[in-house]
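Note to self: keep these together.
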Amino acid sequence: MKRINNVYDKIVSYDNLLRAYDKCLKGKREKEEILKINFNKELFLKDIQYLLTSGKYVHDKYFFFWKLDSKKRRIASASFKDKVVHYAIHLIIEPMLDKRFICDSYACRRDKGTHKAIKKLQRIIFFNQNMYCLQCDVKKYFKSINHDVLKKILLKHIKDKRLLNLLDVIIDSYNCNTGRGIPLGNLTSQLFANIYLNELDQYVKHRLRCRQYIRYMDDFVILGDKEFLKKINLLIINFLKNNLLLEIPFTKNQIFRSREIVFLGFVLNGRWMRIKRGSRYTMLKKCKKNKNKRVKNSYIGYTNFSKNYLLKDKILKALY
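Structure:
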């Protein structure tokens, strides 16, 4: 597949920046900072366009805060100006890069997601009852992504020099002293994270020829014969260490019978699934503290998907 070229002008066009601006407004329209920007929207976008076309664009510093879901995470929030730039890039190159990804990569992609990954894994288990499962999770994935390696990978897919320079600015805006890590919170980080482990996807599917493989961001499973899995396990660990400078902890590297697998917050086999006990507890705890309708609808969607109607009743009682 040819490298992406001659797209920088599309990214910095006023129409694309306006689309990105409208996307970034979602859920923020009432904020005081956004109201001020919205008053001079055209001037704001023209300024961004000038910075990008003249090569004078500089990424602002991040605002950091902590978010508690399954574990405590440090989120980096970019300025509104930078978010518009991130979205403008994403709108143009994401559909082009997505075509290069394998169909069994499910994170942060259109028409993919958690539920489809789980359904696919459940079908594989159903038709392969006696197989073994190799399950791995990369250690501190977002923190471990190497800037130089990421830039080399992007160079394999993108030819446009101005776009590569802009992506370098975004990559180096975070932890430039250590040269490792991308921020949780950036829209571009999702794309960077997917293209980084796309190297693993291509290796596993085309070099190791693993048919039963599913990856959701840094969490992946492979089903097959026990001896085959033992063999490829060492190859995968070496590939990640030598090519991507990533590590899989011993505790997150297991081979076991595929009768029952814990994956993406669900316990599943070929016939049924249930939400993990820890996840159920967290959901109920959040519902008691936060009675937001969006929270309610997302959790009820989770319970409907897993057919956990008893938990659904508990959530409804907690919310009302």
